[in-house]
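Entry:
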Amino acid sequence: MSNPVIQFEKGLLFLAMQNYDVLASVSWRDVIKYLRWALNIEKYDAFRWIGKVQEDIDYLYPDRLEAHLSYALFFCERVFQTVHLLNDLRLFLRYKPFTIEQLKLEKIYSFYEEHNI
């Protein structure tokens, strides 16, 4: 199975190479759908790095803990930015914003609160 982040970057490269009509309309529903997809990729990365931090703590790897912790916090912040962007767009369109529980991000928020200095 290939890395979804690499697939996403390949998709962006493919889109950049195409000559699309910029006057063609794009529905807001599609924009929200793709933001949700981007959020799932960001969430996957954050969970992966949180798992590595947990592994470092469980198996006592102090030399890797600091680097993995900084990566995990970075990816948590990327999730927060994507959620903020998604909810701002939903408010602009007069939709209800998503809650943390609806997006299943409780673990990411609790990890960030616990480890952010």
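The chain has a mean pLDDT of 85.
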